[in-house]
Design goal:
Blueprint: E1 2-5, E2 26-29, H1 37-44, E3 49-52, H2 61-64, E4 72-75, H3 85-90, E5 94-96, H4 102-117, H5 120-128, E6 155-159, H6 163-174, E7 178-182, H7 185-193, E8 197-198, H8 202-208, E9 211-214, H9 228-232, E10 239-242, H10 253-260, E11 265-268, E12 288-290, H11 299-317
Parallel strand pairs: 1-2, 1-3, 3-4, 4-5, 6-7, 6-9, 7-8, 9-10, 10-11, 11-12
């Protein structure tokens, strides 16, 4: 099969142990994103199977119409809003899914929490600039803004109590934090069973927590679910963490909230436009810590997600497709 793997930004896919699963197939790996549908269609016009690394490339009906050879899309992880599943079914393009590795994103969440709470990026940058123990400047509504803080005894708010949220909460309890959960009825019930506090009212949730971390899937119901008034309810000393999806927050709301000082800090690994451009507003704010969507870009995570995608390719090529998200697409084109 002729296989294309898109958006291997770090140029690591060929070096994974799982890559050997594609021996015998013709594989092309692209390291840089395209500038539009036309360029992408040229890249993929003779491809039988397309491998998507998470949600880095959008696959639309317009693109699919220009890819007559395409039979199979191997999604790493689960299908998301970047992929028009109905259009794939209409074009008889089978879409398969693989499993994620929640530990990687949970660990990244805690890396950001601790770095933000101890003001680590600012201290490190100033150290390299010759300034000893200098962090972000104090603010009128928070004179101790530059002084790091322990998480022990603070209230950790987890919105979304799935696999990642549960790991984050467990680590929080190990640090001696109180954990509050907001989300669906099932999430709150599970959280209560595990000894956490469940908060039904969203304003009470944002107002009570010292740290809020988002762990929701991006679907129509969750798009923009974190609103301006939610952020305004947070303490000036509070931290908002987003390692999930930028679109969970109303467009522009987080930057405006940080400028207003509620919350006082944010740590984000995701952006509305990725790769994020140099003019991204959050990158210019001293009370925002930003990383380039590294939550899942970890060795074991790649071996699991891409290895699963490659298993799906081998099965599809053998005529025995597995893990198909749109079974109606199978059959003659």
């Amino acid at each position: 099969m002729r296989i294309a793997i898109l958006d291997d930004y770090q140029n690591v896919v060929r070096h994974l142990l799982a890559f050997a699963k594609l021996d015998g197939h013709s594989v092309t790996v692209f390291n840089h994103p395209t500038s539009g549908v036309g360029q992408l269609a040229v890249r993929l016009r003779e491809v039988d199977t397309l491998v998507l690394i998470r949600e880095r490339t959008r696959v639309t009906a317009r693109l699919l119409a220009r890819l007559p050879a395409l039979q199979h899309i191997a999604q790493t992880g689960k299908v998301g809003p970047h992929l028009d599943l109905d259009a794939c079914t209409g074009q008889r393009v089978a879409v398969t899914e693989s499993n994620g590795y929640p530990q990687a994103t949970a660990e990244m969440t805690w890396l950001l929490i601790l770095a933000a709470m101890r003001r680590m990026p600012a201290y490190m940058a100033n150290l390299y600039a010759g300034q000893w123990q200098r962090s972000v400047p104090p603010r009128t509504n928070w004179p101790l803004a530059g002084l790091g803080e322990s998480v022990h005894g603070k209230m950790l708010g987890v919105w979304g109590y799935g696999r990642i949220g549960q790991i984050v909460a467990t680590i929080g309890r190990a640090f001696g934090m109180r954990v509050a959960v907001h989300g669906s009825d099932a999430s709150r019930a599970r959280a209560t069973e595990e000894g956490n506090l469940a908060i039904v009212d969203r304003r009470d949730f944002f107002a009570a927590c010292d740290l809020v971390t988002l762990h929701l899937r991006l679907i129509d119901a969750t798009r923009g679910c974190v609103r301006t008034e939610d952020l305004a309810a947070m303490k000036p000393t509070a931290l908002l963490v987003n390692t999930s999806r930028a679109e969970l927050v109303e467009p522009g709301a987080l930057a405006s909230a940080l400028r207003a000082g509620r919350p006082g800090l944010a740590a984000v690994d995701v952006f509305e436009r990725e790769p994020a451009a140099a003019d991204e507003e959050l990158l210019r704010l001293p009370n925002a810590i930003c990383t380039p969507h590294l939550g899942f870009t970890e060795r074991m995570s790649y071996e699991r997600m891409l290895g699963g995608a490659f298993d799906n390719i081998v099965a599809f090529a053998a005529g025995t497709p597995i893990n198909v998200a749109n079974p109606a697409a199978l059959g003659a084109r």
